[in-house]
Write a structure and sequence with these properties.
Radius of gyration: 43 Å
Mean pLDDT: 77
Number of strands: 29
Strand content: 15-25%
Number of helices: 25
Distance between the termini: 77 Å
Oligomer: single chain
Shape: elongated
Low-confidence stretches: 1-26, 535-541, 625-636, 787-795
Helix content: 40-55%
């Protein structure tokens, strides 16, 4: 038992002071008692330290050695016990005791023994300082030893390792701090945060939710979340919640859905909601983040109205003004005096600059909103670049700059819209000309990089400043606005390039050119790579479609292309054959040419829609004509026909017909555009549908165009025989924000179908699209229908 230390060992019968304190009285009894005492002390799992009256260590058990890292021989009779504890904490203890007892505490061991010396039980937390300098949290108690005369002859210090308790305390403290910070963050969050349990009951709401909905938090907790949703959306909201419980994952509620929040006062606001699953003790909770997007919607409406104004109210008269000024500048009205001609030339130049600005604004807006239709074809890049160079030589000459095609340029084929790609290259050339010093040369190159074609334009200008590089492709971005204005820059050219190239599945960028200037480039996947990527869909889709086409040559072209893209295609050359096939086979989509033998296409649509098995089948109207330039069939803009009804209209039937697209809309209150010159019918339809949809009623083609420019519609109802103008003019304009055909119900006079079929076919040719674009649109529509159907099944 040597661990107790030499100061604790007794070799004769003369008792040490500590022996006296415990009443040991000599001889063998003393030795037996000492052995028993040592065994007990060393078996304890706590630090037991005995000191004399001055605090010098007299006993140091095995537990103390383990806790503090000292051997007993390094401490006994060599250290004062206060040296084993944190001195700063001892000073703090001295201050507290001095205040408590209104007396000065003697520094040193007296800080530890102050209460024990007065017979007061003393237990406190204190950090031990280990031999290696590390700290060990401990719970310490001190008791005084007295002799038979009640004089203090020493002290017994017992220290328990308190590190686990301290760790728990620290963890609890950190948890409280974290919870407090989390509550502050949740309350300070600018977005509404709402937590709902599996049954749809609200369990948490932050201050922004209170502000958005007008309820106090106590009025929300424990209440159904449906109270914050308009009644018309309860059913779809319940379906969303059920689907989320089945497949919980972080997601944003469908972006295209016009979700609405219902305030306490009954008013509504447009909302965007993100859902996040949280599992606590095996229970699924849903954290919803709610953003009030009313202001965003208002800005979008203002933007749409502005674009419509620019397009219809500014560009048209400005084009006329520029044309008139151009004729005057060219002496078409007779030779002008030199001074007058100079003024006319200045006006003409500035009108052209304004037209370019308006066109750029319209282009960028249409591209960002997805309204620009891309006609993808097989394009040989070098030839297209040569065409762009020739088209811009006059502009370069005006800036005293030369444009040259690098002789090493390769002939590479890509999949692109040639007109849009030409626009992108032209914008790069225009940018290079504007910022090249007079007398310099612009070099254009086409090179192959693995499976990518790179078109690069190298100029010898001042280069792009470092601070401007991150913003070079942003809208209205100009490194030197003064110089850009002097040279007629709008700050939109490179932004348009970026939008075009990204729509072509490519990338755009720039580098500093060796010796000064910049190299702007765009990379596009080669034709082989693009086809390979497209072919991935072919093995997966396998939608079955029916093609109703009376032109065998056109039917063969479409049949082959549809088959290549993974569609299983049946062909019907007559209306009767089409009706028979639909009766026998389920189809994902039916494509109808308007001019067919044995009954025109409009009559076929009516016969098909009369069959209940194709109640929800996508029915696409197209017309085809042989394009001699490309020697392939070019379908015109497709129409997504819900039904074709004879006039006068049976309103009850119309409401039943509109139930289809309204139901498929799924997650929002649908918007219907009704174009008709009959005011009574407009009022009746709006009244009958107002419980299910928002109806915008207009009575002319011009009003319809303004409505389409400023709003998004889910369904259109069109009378093609308007009192003023022809509704047929609108057919190729009925598109949503992504450029897709809006589902359409058409009215036409009874017995005039063949004549209208010819007119509709002619109207559709105003906005041609390639077969590839037709198939892409068809694929997108079917994929969306399939997803919507799956959602309904889950719900």
């Amino acid at each position: 038992m040597s661990n107790i230390g030499e100061g604790a060992a007794v070799e004769d019968d003369k008792a040490r002071p500590l022996d006296q304190a415990v009443g040991v009285a000599g001889g063998s009894a003393l030795r037996e008692t000492r052995i028993l005492r040592e065994a007990i002390l060393n078996s304890a799992d706590v630090a037991i330290i005995a000191t004399d009256a001055r605090g010098v260590v007299q006993l140091f058990n095995t537990g103390a050695e383990r806790m503090l890292g000292y051997a007993a021989g390094e401490v006994v009779n060599k250290k004062s016990s206060d040296a084993l504890f944190d001195p700063l904490q001892l000073i703090d203890r001295a201050k507290a005791l001095s205040a408590e007892f209104a007396t000065a505490i003697i520094p040193g061991f007296g800080i530890l023994s102050f209460k024990a010396a007065r017979g007061i039980e003393d237990r406190f937390d204190l950090d031990c300082i280990r031999k290696d300098g590390s700290r060990l949290p401990a719970n310490v108690s001190i008791t005084a030893f007295c002799d038979h005369k009640t004089e203090i002859i020493g002290y017994l210090i017992i220290a328990n390792d308190n590190s686990a308790v301290q760790l728990a305390r620290d963890a609890a403290k950190r948890e409280l701090i974290a919870q407090g910070m989390f509550r502050l963050a949740v309350e300070a969050c600018p977005s509404g945060m709402l937590m709902v349990d599996r049954e749809g009951m609200i369990v948490m709401a932050n201050a922004e939710i209170e502000r958005q909905f007008g309820y106090a938090c106590d009025d929300l907790i424990g209440k159904p979340v449906d109270m914050l949703v308009p009644a018309r959306q309860h059913r779809q909201h319940a379906a969303h919640r059920k689907a989320f419980n089945i497949r919980p994952e972080t997601r944003k509620v469908e972006a295209r859905a016009d979700l609405s929040g219902l305030r306490k006062d009954g008013s509504e606001f447009s909302a965007e909601v993100s859902l996040n699953p949280i599992e606590i003790d095996g229970n699924l909770l849903v954290l919803g983040v709610v953003v009030d997007i009313s202001e965003r919607k208002r800005i979008e409406r203002l933007k749409a109205e502005f674009v419509a104004t620019v397009s219809h109210e500014l560009r048209t008269p400005l084009t006329s003004i520029a044309g008139a000024l151009g004729l005057l500048a060219g002496d078409a009205a007779g030779k002008l005096p030199a001074s007058a001609k100079r003024l006319v030339t200045i006006a003409y130049s500035n009108s052209q600059r304004l037209i370019r600005l308006l066109n750029d604004i319209l282009d960028i807006e249409k591209m960002e909103s997805g309204k620009v239709v891309f006609d993808f074809k097989r394009v040989e890049v070098r030839s297209l670049v040569e065409q762009a160079i020739e088209a811009n030589r006059a502009m370069a000459k005006g800036g005293d700059v030369r444009i040259r095609l690098d002789s090493a340029s390769a002939a590479i084929e890509v999949r692109a819209d040639p007109d849009r790609l030409l626009q992108a290259v032209t914008n790069l050339l225009s940018n290079a000309v504007k910022f090249s010093p007079p007398g310099e040369e612009i070099v254009v190159a086409v090179e192959a990089r693995n499976e990518t074609a790179r078109i690069s334009v190298r100029d010898h200008g001042h280069g792009v400043p470092d601070e401007f590089k991150p913003h070079i492709f942003e809208k209205f971005a100009q490194a030197d606005a003064t110089d850009a204005r002097r040279k007629g820059g709008t700050g939109l050219g490179l932004s348009i390039v970026k939008e075009i190239v990204e729509r072509l599945d490519g990338e755009v960028g720039f580098d500093d050119a060796p010796g000064g200037g910049s190299i702007f480039y765009l990379d596009l996947p080669t034709w082989a790579r693009a086809v390979r990527l497209e072919s991935r869909f072919a093995g997966k889709a396998q939608f079955r479609v029916l093609l109703c086409e009376d032109n065998p040559e056109a039917a063969i072209v479409l049949f082959d292309r549809l088959r290549q893209k993974g569609f299983l295609t049946d062909v019907a050359l007559t209306a009767n054959e089409a009706v028979a096939r639909v009766a026998a086979t389920p189809y994902a989509a039916i494509l109808v040419d308007l001019q067919l033998p044995q009954g025109d296409g409009i009559d076929l649509i009516k016969r098909l829609r009369a069959q209940p098995q194709i109640y929800n089948t996508l029915l696409v109207v197209l017309s085809a004509a042989l394009d001699p330039a490309h020697d392939e069939t070019q379908p015109a803009t497709l129409l997504n026909i819900v039904d074709w009804l004879d006039t006068p209209i049976d309103v009850a039937r119309l409401v039943r017909v509109l139930d289809r697209p309204i139901a498929r809309n799924g997650h929002t209150r649908p918007r219907i555009l009704h174009v008709d010159s009959d005011p009574e019918l407009l009022r009746t339809v709006a009244r009958e549908l107002r419980a299910k949809a928002e109806v915008m009623s207009v009575d002319s083609v011009e009003e319809a165009r303004r409505a389409l420019a400023a709003n998004r519609f889910d369904v259109a109802v069109l009378d093609v025989a308007l009192a003023a103008g022809s509704g047929i003019e609108l057919l190729h304009e009925l598109r949503n924000g992504e450029g897709d055909a809006i589902p359409l119900v058409v009215f036409s006079p009874r017995d005039e179908n063949p004549a209208f079929a010819v007119q509709v076919r002619a109207a559709l040719t105003k906005s041609r699209m390639s077969i590839d674009h037709l198939i892409a649109a068809l694929r997108k529509r079917l994929a969306a229908s399939s997803l919507s159907s799956n959602d309904r099944d889950v719900a």
